[in-house]
Design brief:
Bound molecules: fe (ii) ion
Number of strands: 0
Helix content: over 70%
Number of helices: 12
Strand content: under 5%
CATH class: Mainly Alpha
Pfam family, one: HD
Shape: globular
Protein name: Putative HD superfamily hydrolase of NAD metabolism
CATH topology: Hypothetical protein af1432
GO molecular function, one term: hydrolase activity
Organism: Mesotoga prima MesG1.Ag.4.2
Order of helices and strands: HHHHHHHHHHHH
InterPro entries: Diverse_Catalytic_Enzymes, HD_domain, YqeK
Distance between the termini: 43 Å
Structural class: mainly alpha
Length: 197
């Protein structure tokens, strides 16, 4: 399986390079680098994490109508927000591309599919991807530096910080919050049991 992932990763990396702007592709490579580093620090198989990282934004620079077309062809049941802002679909489209082309499923599929918003029950692969996406070395704001440091020590706590940051940004910039991000936040805070106990 590891060898299989490595072969797919090489192919997907080349495809991502051909589909993305140079800046986007550099971001993808930096996410891959940090994600693999965090995997080795925490003793997690880095080949699945690496594949999730190289594929997560491969469709990020596609035109809106192309993302919509792909989403429809993959049978994605689009939310109202995705219909209005098709860029939100780039993770789901990438995950379904991986599944269709290479049979990728499980944690890698879930990580790529939900990397924009998060989702309750995220795997460690998904958490490492979201942490690396927000805190790769090209991100030079103070929160990113902090996240890079704490991620080496505590992935779970750092993931809470990532979700907090996404929510804070949305609130501070008067943007919409993706419901899945809120569900993830609530899950990380004990969900309904926390309210009633
Ligand atoms: Fe993305
Ligand atoms: Fe990204």
């Amino acid at each position: 399986m590891i060898t299989e992932y490595d072969t797919v990763t090489r192919e997907v990396r080349a495809k991502a390079k051909s589909m993305c702007s140079p800046e986007r592709f550099e971001h993808i490579l930096r996410v891959e680098r940090l994600a693999k580093r965090l995997s080795s620090i925490h003793g997690i198989d880095s080949s699945g994490v690496g594949l999730a990282a190289v594929s997560h934004d491969m469709f990020r620079d596609q035109a809106e109508d192309e993302l919509m077309r792909l989403a429809i062809s993959f049978g994605i049941d689009m939310t109202e927000m995705e219909r209005v802002a098709p860029v939100l679909l780039h993770g789901k489209v990438a995950a379904l591309y991986l599944k269709e082309e290479y049979g990728v499923d499980g944690d890698v599929f879930q990580a790529v599919y939900w990397h924009v918003s998060g989702i309750p029950g995220m795997s460690t692969t998904g958490k490492i991807l979201m942490i690396s996406d927000i805190a790769e070395e090209g991100r030079d704001f103070s929160e990113a530096l902090h996240i890079r440091e704490t991620a080496e020590v505590d992935l779970e706590k750092t993931f809470v910080d990532v979700i907090r940051l996404k929510i804070t940004w949305a609130v501070e910039s008067d943007s919409l919050l993706l419901p899945e991000t809120v569900w993830t936040w609530n899950e990380l805070h004990g969900g309904a049991s926390h309210v009633f106990n």
